[in-house]
Structure formats: structure tokens, C-alpha cells
Amino acid sequence: MPVSSLPIPAHYGLRENAVFPDIQVLDMDTQQPTAFELNLRESVVLITLLGCQSCEQTLKQMKIYNFNAFEFDMVVLTFLYPGVYYAEDKIARHNAFLKALSISKKFIVLEEAINQLEITSFPTLMRISPDGKVIGTYLADAHQIAPHFQSSGIDIAS
Questions:
Q1: Whose CB has fewer CB within 10 Å in the chain, the N or C terminal residue?
Q2: pLDDT tens per residue, range 70-127
Q3: Do the Cβ atoms of 80 and 87 come closer than 8 Å?
């Protein structure tokens, strides 16, 4: 598939100017509940589904970027859906993809958070302004991710 040059808006998810809700998350490493807080700069939130092949392809594609060089916070929220089979194996596999990235903010979210975010397809990307408002909700398949990580028209790769 060709690489898209512009972000592709999703037909689902929180709309522009909606306030990003307070959601409950679990730390990816410890699986303990923790507070999810946005920082005082733009956040890019990738929402993935545990065991989703398209999500894994997107995470593989993202390995080329040095997220520490960007002027936004990169966050990955992984949906652990009810009744998932082989959850430990899938979490370990997913975590291996995440460890290849320079991202420290990675969390597990449950069904309630996915419902609050109005997400119905994976992977999805949301851009959140420093004041907590949604800039946009976008499709985030591997071939659609590059426009989100361009700075002045130039990719910032590792």
C-alpha cells in the first residue's frame, strides 16, 4: 500500500475539541493501576489492541523514529479485552515491540477506557493539545503513521 502524505481522520473516536477524559490505566510492566496524566505539551496517543497484527505492524514501523527528539509526548495505550486467551504470552509479545521503541509511557487500558475514548478500530492515533483537548483522531495502520511523525516536512528518524 502507498504511504499516505496526510493524516487520515477516523470516523470514530473523540472528535476535535473534545476534552480527553480521565481514564484508568495499568502500568504495562507491573500491571498495577496508575494515574494517566497528560503533560503540558502536545501528546500523541497510539491506541492498540493486544494481539492485533495491524497494531504490531504499526509498532514495527515506528522503530525508525527517535521519540525523544520530538516536541510531543508519545504514549501507547494497549487494550486488554475481556476474555483474552493466552494473555500473558500476548502481553510479552506486545511488550517486546514496545521495548524496541524509545517510549516510556505505555499502559494497558480496559474496556471502560476504550468506551470513554469511543474507539472501535485498531490501531488508532489521537493527538491531544497541551490543554487536554483532542486535536484529532486518526487511522494508524503502518502505512498511515508517517505523517504524524514529521517535523517541518522532514522525518525524525533514529
A1: N
A2: 899 999 999 988 887 777 888 888 889 998 898 889 999 999 999 999 999 999 999 9
A3: yes
User: If you count them, how many residues does the chain have?
Assistant: 158
**Using CA of residue 120, residue 147, residue 57, residue 25, what is the dihedral sign?**
negative
Residue 30's alpha-carbon distances to 11, 26, 59, 83, 88, in angstroms, are 34, 8, 21, 20, 12
> For position 152, what pLDDT does the model report?
38
- Report d(CA 104, CA 28) in Å as an integer: 10
- Output the CA torsion sign for 82, 75, 118, 113: positive
3-state per-residue secondary structure call for the chain:
CCCCCCCCECCCCCCCCCECCCCEEEECCCCCEEECCCCCCCEEEEEEECCCHHHHHHHHHHHHECHHHCCCEEEEEEECCCCCCCHHHHHHHHHHHHHCCCCCEEEEECHHHHHHHCCCCCCEEEEECCCCEEEEEEECCHHHCHHHHEECCEECEC
